[in-house]
Amino acid sequence: MAGARLLPPALTLKQFLRRQQVLQLYRRILQAIRRVPTEADRHYLKEWAREEFKKNKDAIDE
Question: What is the pLDDT of residues 41-60, one digit of tens each?
Fold first, then answer.
């Protein structure tokens, strides 16, 4: 079974709800960025948001 992968552990209800809140926040940030008038600023802010969320992906401190 060299190609078998273990499934990630199931989320608790609290973790699931927090994940939903984080995803909602990310969507709201992207929606706000769409209203920025200049393309260069939109691109910069979108990359910034993406990197910040990636950087804090494994954060557990609420």
Answer: 999 999 999 999 999 988 88
